[in-house]
Design brief:
0% strand, mainly alpha, 99 residues
Amino acid sequence: MIGKFFYIPKNKRFSIPFRYYDPDKEEMETREQRIKHELGIHEKKEFDASYRATLKGSFRNAAGGHAKSVEDARRKSNTRLIFLILILAFVFYLLFFQF
């Protein structure tokens, strides 16, 4: 009991290995694999032509009309806001000044 009274827990230490991703190297490796596949040079790995190695931006491109940058998104938002204000102003004009 007295031993637990003076016990101070130590910090937990984590060992997380670092990961490095080089898109140029990966693109070069897939290009080499594709060329070897076309030439008929087969390695241990099986090449799948339907596999897309680079996923960067594929979700944005698949979505279609989404903005590619923050400025484009802001511009589209401002355009929608101005359009909405014009429609509401027209509706209020019709309600208050026509009847």
